[in-house]
Every structure is written in structure tokens, then in C-alpha cells.
Amino acid sequence: MKKWFCWGGLLAIVTTTTILFSAYNNNFFGNWYFNLLTSKLTVNNTAEVVQRQIYAAEIEQPKQLKTPQFITAPNVNKRRLMSHIKALNFERYEDINRSQARDYIINNLKKSGWLPTLQTFEFGINVVAEKPGNNPEAGSILLAAHYDTVIGSPGADDNASGVAIVLEVARLLSKLPTAKTLKIAFFDLEEKGLLGSFAFANQPENLANLRGTIILDMVGFACHTPGCQQYPLGLPITPPSDKGDFLAVIGDAENPELIAAFSNKNSSDLPPVITLPVPLKGVATPDLLRSDHTPFWLRGIGAVLITDTGNFRSPHYHKPTDKPDTIDQNFFTGVAQIVANGTATLLQNQ
């Protein structure tokens, strides 16, 4: 009897595995997983923004990233960084204000030698540009931030800080020879449900040869008093501190090389970095699915979210008080250097 029971159990396992494998190949599992992830998004990040899912067969799969050595980028410029935040010190919610922000971004990219283009979608406009690498087979790295705000907030930290760093890294690396192509993007309407990044990721040509994505969202606020740092429920690591003086690098666990590029092991002068590999693309931790890295996770592209943790630290989150004078300039400048170094490292990797 026990023998037949064992054989019966084995047959059930084989049958279940066959069904699941067949379902996956027919995109049933892919659809289920996609819908599950998007259902985990917050109220402002609903599944309604998804126009069409792209299946793995439609795009070239990302290759594993290797970072044999860290590259130190040229030094970032604090004055330039803060000038960007001050220039964007206005609510970027209505079309006219977002257009003003786009003009600022485009003009600064052109000054740094880039040729930006606009990618329009039903609800808004993304600004994109790229600098070809020396090795066409090495693929590309995308560095991106959203430029819109919620209504009523000038969004210094959320997310003029991210925009400022992308502009500064673009300036620094514009003439630096790299193996990989550097793509940059400024996403529209993140605050209305990740609309710009979903629109970007819905275009197969944007994902072709993409080896990894770096998303900057709120990277300029620090707090140094005990108890000022909070954490989301279900965090798979022990919180390092109740002070908000560190940078968080959150990535999918399947792409550890992306996360490692920003671990900041080489300099004690820069802010400490907490790295968080997220299993199962964040299904168990919906608070980690609230920014523009999510559409890339959904499509099997390795991505990291670099953040000061936003509302888990800042009392100015989505408020009128999110102004330039609340930015911790030393912390912010250090974060910019970490991003510049990590991006240069990934670009040089073959």
C-alpha cells in the first residue's frame, strides 16, 4: 500500500509540473503573475494603466551582469545639482507645468551634448536620450527618474532630486567612453500610476538589449534623529537603524550584480548604503512596488530603485513643504556620486 502511495504521489507531482509548464508556455502563468503584481500596487498605481503585457518571447532576455571592479566617475557638482532642484521648484502636475519641466530637462541635456527625443503616450510625454557604447553586443543600461509631482507639491525631493542626478550623471558621462550604451529617461505621470514608465516598457524597442534599469525616486532627504526612520511591513531584512541617514538600493533578487554596483564599499566619505534584494518581484512587499522600477520587473528586466525611502522618512512627502531648503545637500551630493559611480561601473562591464 505504501509503495502504491509513493508512486501515486510521484505521478501527481509530475502531472502538476507538466500542467504548470504548459500553462507557462501558453502565457497563462505569465498573465496570472502580471495581474497579481499589478493588483499589489497602491490606489494611485492601479492595473488600469497597463495597456498591453509584453511576453518574454517578444524581447531579448537580459544577460547576467558582472561587475569585476568598481569604476569611480568624475566628481559631481553640488552647485549644479542644487541649481536643478531650485529651477524645478514648482508644482509639476498640470500639463502646462510639466511642459515647462520638460523644456528645462531638454535644454540641459542639449547643453551636455545629448540629443533628446520625446516619446508620447495617451496621457503624457517621456523624454529619452542615449549615448552609444563602444561594444554593440554589450547592451545598454537605463538611468531614469520621473519629473511630475502630485497636486499641491513642488516636489523637491519627489522627484526633482532624481531628475537633478540624472541630468548631472548625463553631463559627467556624456563624453566618457563606455562598453555599454547609456540610455536616460525622464518619465511623465509616475504620480498618476506609473503611467510614463509603463508606456515606456510597453514598447519592445525600448527594452531591446536592455541589461538593467536604474530608477531614482526621492534621493535628497535625510534625518538624523533617533526614531525618524520607519520601515514597511514584511521587510525581509533587519532594519539597520532608526535614523534616516542611509541610501536604500532595492533590486530584484535575480539580479544581484545590479544591486552590488551601488553598494559603496570603496568610500567612507559617502552616505552608507543599505542594499535590499527583493524575492518574487515584490509580491510579498507591495510597498516596494510603488515606483518606476515595477514595469521593468514585470517584464523580466533587472531593475534597482535608489531612494531615501520617501514617506518612511520625510515629513514633507507629497506636501507643499517639499521644497529645496529641506534637501540635505551633503547627503544629496553623496548620493549623486554613488549613482554616478555605480552607473559608470555597470556601463564599463562587458
Give a structural overview.
The chain folds into two domains: 39 residues; 306 residues, Zn peptidases (Aminopeptidase, 3-Layer(aba) Sandwich). The N terminus is likely disordered. It has an eight-stranded mixed sheet, sandwiched between helices. With 350 residues, it is an alpha/beta fold. Helix content is 35%, strand content 14%. The longest helix has 24 residues. It is globular, with a radius of gyration of 21 Å.
What is the topology?
Elements lengths: L1 H24 L2 H12 L38 H10 L7 H17 L5 E4 L4 E7 L8 E7 L9 H18 L7 E7 L7 H7 L2 H4 L2 E7 L30 E6 L3 H5 L12 E6 L15 H5 L4 E5 L21 H20 L2
Parallel strand pairs: 3-4, 3-5, 5-8, 6-7
Antiparallel strand pairs: 1-2, 2-4, 6-8
Helix pairs in contact: 3-5, 4-5, 5-10
Work out the number of β strands. Answer: 8
CATH superfamily placement of the largest domain: Zn peptidases
Using only C-alpha atoms, the radius of gyration works out to: 21 Å
Named CATH architecture of the largest domain: 3-Layer(aba) Sandwich
Q: Terminal Cα separation, in Å? A: 58 Å
- Alpha-beta classification: alpha/beta
- Number of domain units: 2
Organism: Floridaenema fluviatile BLCC-F154
Protein name: M28 family peptidase
Keywords: Hydrolase
Give a summary of the structure in a few sentences:
Pfam families: Peptidase_M28. This is M28 family peptidase. This protein is an alpha/beta fold and 350 residues long.
